[in-house]
Amino acid sequence: MFRIVMVISMHKNIRYLAYIVLACLAFLVIYIGFIPLYISHVQSQSKNGKAAWLNDPRLLKKMQEKQAGSIYDRRGELLAQTVTGPAGVNKRQYPMGHNFAHIIGYSSTKYGLTGIEAGLSSVLLGEGNLELSNRSKGNSIELTIDASLQKLAVSLLGGRRGALVAIEPKTGDILALASSPTFDPNEIDTQMPSLKNDNSSPLLNRATQGAYAPGSVFKLVTLTSVLQNIPGAANRVFECKGSLSGQGFVLKCNDVHGRIDLKKALEVSCNSVFAALGLELGSRALVKTAQVYGFNRNYYLPINYYSGEVSGNGSMNESELAFTGIGQGKAVANPMQMAIVACGLANNGMVMRPTLVKRIISPKGETIQESKPEEWLNVTDSERAETIKDYMVAVVREGSGTRAGISGIEVAGKTGTAENSDRAHAWFVGFAPASNPEVAVAVIIENGGSGGAVAAPVAREIMSRAIDM
Question: E strand or H helix at 321, and its extent?
Answer without folding.
Answer: helix 318-325
